[in-house]
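input
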Amino acid sequence: MEAMVTAYQKNVAALMEANKAAMAGYQELYKRQVALVEEGLAKTKDQIHEMQSQPMNPDHAAKNLEVARASVEKVMGDMRELAEMAQQANTEAFNIIKSRFDEAMGEVKAASDKAGS
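output
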């Protein structure tokens, strides 16, 4: 009975540790999302102001198109970064739980071997 209680306590501790790891990862993800939105809004505001101050001609249109293309590429890179951050947070939490599962399987095997002796 004591072994079951100890195993349960270890399981709960592993779940708490996994939740802490996931929460920390998601907090960093949230902070990065906020920073990216703020940066994007400021940059968009500046770009709109710059476009409005320029006369419309082919050279300026080409420049504006290049700025828009660069912005889209940056957004795609930012999205990739955020996805990687989320994946890392999930992987860390999963590894904690997997480690505890592997340990529990070892405990079951040891108990089984002991009972068989």
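quick obs: The two ends are 19 Å apart (CA to CA).
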